[in-house]
Amino acid sequence: MSAAREQRTVLVPEGLAGERVDAALARMFGLSRTRAAELVADGLVLVDGVAVSKSERVHEGAMLDVTIPQTGNPVEVVPEVVEGINIVHDDEAIVVIDKPVGVAVHPSPGWTGPTVVGHLAGAGFRISTSGASERQGIVQRLDVGTSGVMVIAKSEQAYSVLKNAFRRRAVDKIYHALVQGHPDPLRGTIDAPIARHPKSDWKFTVRADGKASITHYDTLEAHRFASLLEVKLETGRTHQIRVHMAALKHPCVGDPLYGADPVLARRVGLDRQWLHATRLGFEHPASGDYVEFASPYPDDLQRALDVIRDAH
């Protein structure tokens, strides 16, 4: 019996035109760059019906046919200490981490890169909560391409209290985002439902039949090409900030999936969206005290922001 395979066919969006095949694959399917390169090398990726090398560039509208073999259990937790994950706080109920870019929160089909759950297992943290083993303790998520502070529940009681707090919108989730142009007004609220994109299962969009999604933003700095925003999430939809800012025609810098300018991304040296979870505040599930944790900008985002600040 042959191993299970997943077949997917997608069209390359304008924002990824000119990218290498492996980079475009990684961005569109949430694969690690290494895994994407392996699929190309194994002849499992066709561009407009033709096998290509990983360094070839894709053009807008090109048809990507991808076959992804399922190796072993796609959601098995592999204990592995991940370089770059910082422990911000640790006690009997919770562990708060600073997640670097390129790390998924938990294993999923198609993702073979590092995960937060795998790191905690490898580093000897005991997470004992109900639910699927690959998602134990997970009460919130950050995209692979988004860095910053997040909390994981270690005990069953903490898991249920935190899950409920997120559901009640009683958690303060503060992000900083560098977006193209200048939002008008400079501060505001985006109340627009989000659903899966009808043509791309790896993208989301504002749609009347979507889930209620509310984003508050405030401009911290306005520069020639971009603005630094402080964003407070009331809801927590997948890609929420990226989708909402794109809907305002102010996509996150470095986010071609949602319409960002690839020329500006190259100019500031980014190969991911400028989006960082800077602060997280909530009532501690054991003590009931309000606690807040913070994460500084990582080097790549700080460098990009410096370039924008210096642009005249």
TrEMBL record:
| Pfam families according to UniProt | PseudoU_synth_2, S4
For this UniProt record, give its keywords in alphabetical order, as a comma-separated list. Isomerase, RNA-binding
What CDD domains does its record include? Answer: PseudoU_synth_RluA_like, S4
Q: Which PROSITE patterns match?
A: PSI_RLU (PS01129), S4 (PS50889)
Q: Describe the reaction catalysed, as an equation.
A: a uridine in RNA = a pseudouridine in RNA
The family database entries (SUPFAM superfamilies) matched by this protein are listed as: Alpha-L RNA-binding motif, Pseudouridine synthase
- What Gene3D superfamilies does the annotation carry? Pseudouridine synthase (3.30.2350.10), RNA-binding S4 domain (3.10.290.10)
Which GO terms fall under molecular function for this chain's record? 23S rRNA pseudouridine(1911/1915/1917) synthase activity
Q: Family per UniProt?
A: Belongs to the pseudouridine synthase RluA family.
The entry's function note states:
Responsible for synthesis of pseudouridine from uracil.
Protein known as: Pseudouridine synthase
- Species per Swiss-Prot/TrEMBL record: Nocardioides massiliensis
